[in-house]
Amino acid sequence: MTSTDNTATSPDSTAAPAAPAPARDPWDLPDVSGLVVGVLGGTGDQGRGLAYRLARAGQKVIIGSRAAERAESAAAELGLGVEGAENAECARRSDIVIIAVPWDGHARTLEALRAELAGKLVIDCVNPLGFDKKGAYALKPAEGSAAEQAAALLPESRVTAAFHHLSAVLLQDTSIEEIDTDVMVLGESRADTDLVQALAGRIPGMRGVFAGRLRNAHQVESLVANLISVNRRYKAHAGLRVTDV
To answer: pTM of the prediction?
Structure first.
């Protein structure tokens, strides 16, 4: 009778464990220069300013509005190859879509564009704010934040949050070469937040910094109320910088 040599097929218990994968450089971001960016609410101050800065940096930009004529007029004023279109067409033709509509029209706009925004990377920069004689104050949507509302209304889109703390005055000032600020970027997928960070970095002086998942968007959106108070007291256009990063 011959015996079976079990040691020949048994795992080698003395083998060294596999080396861990090298840490990924958080500043190794993708190239987004060839992507088309749509800005819904691009005829408003914030959207128009973002459209201008991105187009000035060489990004292909389409402004969206409920009225195509209004979008086309705003695009013609900006120049830089910016195009204008009705919201649905803007969403369809874009790879990345920035939501820069007023808060009171946020849900209505997204509900109407669910099909056109399916599969798109959506960046919500809407700040739910109220105003009274004491100044600006944060509102808290039932979903937790504007970004979380967007995620609930757009289940087939990849929703992120960014560009909340930018001064529309500075964005639109053609004499300013650089916007000295960081952009807090939130989202559920690193691949998506990396794309948004890279897009922010296309604008000279600007840097995108990962700031957590969408459940933390309320704090970021709410901080705009504090910045409004800062700006009123000091007659400024304050932004944010994250230190030691």
So the answer is: 0.89
